[in-house]
Amino acid sequence: GENVEQHPSTLSVQEGDSAVIKCTYSDSASNYFPWYKQELGKGPQLIIDIRSNVGEKKDQRIAVTLNKTAKHFSLHITETQPEDSAVYFCAASKGGNNRLAFGKGNQVVVIP
Amino acid sequence: DARVTQTPRHKVTEMGQEVTMRCQPILGHNTVFWYRQTMMQGLELLAYFRNRAPLDDSGMPKDRFSAEMPDATLATLKIQPSEPRDSAVYFCASGRFIDEQYFGPGTRLTVT
C-alpha cells in the first residue's frame, strides 16, 4: 500500500519567517494530496489540497507544491504567526475507493 | 457551519469496562471513518463505512472492538473489555468520498 513520510518531525521557526514541510510518497498512482492542521486538543482540519494535474496551489499564506516525478509534495507557510503552531499531517490517495494514507505528522513551533 | 460531533469528549474508565463512543457525521456524508491517535503510533485507521456498510475494519482488534452505523446519523465504536493500552484519542471523520475527511473533535479515552 501507499507509504507517506514527513520530514522534519519538528520544525521551529521565528515569527514572520517561512516554514516548509516536505512529504514523500511511494505509490506513483497517487493523485490527491491533502494537508491537515491539528491544533492542541482538536481534530485534524483540512487546510489545503492538491491534485496531480497541477503543480502548485496557493491559499493566502499557505501553498502546496507537487513534484510527481520525485514523488514528493511540500507545504509552504509564509509570514508565520503564533497561531500556525500545530501538528501538520500530509496524506496521499489514488482516488476512487482508495482511502487516504497519512504521514506521521510534523510539529511546527512558531517562536514569537 | 456543518461539523462532525463526537460524544463523550472525555472518558475515564477502569480496565474491563465497556466503552461506547458516538459520532454524528456531517449531514449528507456517506463515508465515516474511525481513527485512533497516540503519541507512539500517530493516526491509525481502525475502520470505515460507506453508506453504513463496513468497507474495511482490518485496523481494529476484532476480539474487543466493534464499529457500527445503526443509521446514517450515528456511528458507534465500542470496546469491550477495555484495557489500559486502549488509552488514546479516538477520532471520527466523515466525507462524501473515500478521500474526503472532515474530522470531529475526538474522544479522549483513559483506561486505568
Please give a structural write-up.
The complex is a heterodimer of chains A (112) and B (112). Chain A is an all-beta fold and 112 residues long. In chain A, 0% of the residues lie in helices and 54% in strands. Chain A is built from no helices and eleven strands. In chain A, the strands form two sheets. In chain A, strands 2, 4, 5, 9, 10 and 11 form a six-stranded mixed beta sheet that branches. In chain A, strands 1-3-8-7-6 form a five-stranded antiparallel beta sheet, with no helix packed on it. In chain A, strand 7 and strand 8 (72-77) form a beta hairpin. Chain A starts with a strand and ends with a strand. The chains are: A mainly beta (112), B mainly beta (112). The A-B interface holds A 32, 34, 36, 41-46, 89, 93, 95-100, 102, 104-105 and B 4, 33, 42-43, 45, 48, 55-56, 91, 93, 98-99, 101-106.
